Amino acid sequence: MINNVDIPNKVAEYLLQINAIKLSPSNPFTWASGLKSPIYCDNRKTLSYPEARDYIRDAFVETVKQKFGDVDVIAGVATGAIALGVLVAQALNKPFVYVRSDAKKHGLQNLVEGYLESGQSVVVIEDLVSTGGSSLKAVDALREAGADVKGLLAIFTYGFSQAVESFKESKCEWHTLSDYNTMVEIALKTGYIKNEDTMLLKKWREDPKNWLD
Question: What is the pTM of this model?
Answer without folding.
Answer: 0.93
